[in-house]
Write a structure and sequence with these properties.
Layout: H1 7-14, H2 29-52, E1 55-56, E2 62-63, E3 70-72, E4 92-99, E5 108-110, E6 114-115, H3 116-122, H4 125-134, E7 139-144, H5 151-154, H6 158-172, E8 176-180
Parallel strand pairs: 3-4, 4-7, 7-8
Antiparallel strand pairs: 1-2, 4-5, 5-6
Amino acid sequence: MLEAPDISAWERDAEPSHLGEPPSPRLSPGRVVAAVLIVLLGFGAAGYALFGRTTSTSAGTTATPTYAPYVDVTLTPTYAFEDPTANPVGDVVLGFVVASAATSSCTPSWGGAYSLGQAGSTLDLDRRIEQMVKQGGHAMVSFGGQANTELAVSCTDTESLTTAYRSVVDRYKLRTIDFDIEGAALG
């Protein structure tokens, strides 16, 4: 004898118990990875906005990282860094101030060959820097370099060394300096 199926039980099982409620969201691995990437990119962008453009200095001020071409002012022919058509960046790192080979070990010189005064007259350096600054550029000076002797290596008296560095900063009204320490000076 065949029994008729229990229709009421079948109807109960056929109708979901959550009828009328929205389906629960499903997280696929692709969606999870996309969400994690979005969060990480957001944190990365926020971190760059807060910390990537500026760095704190010991004086409590903020410094902006600077990128500019290096120009060895003692090379010939001279590079017209003060001419916007030759240097569209506007800023420049001028090198290289080292200890004078001709005078005192605490006297700054350009490449060991020109005193600051000689560079002003022979290389026309003071006027060229002034012209670049008037056009909105910034001059930076690099102390050291691969050749010659860095001031701090030959000038062992702290007060004299400070005076030597200060004389360059003051002469060219510098806001930024660079220390290009290489070779034996690393020791």
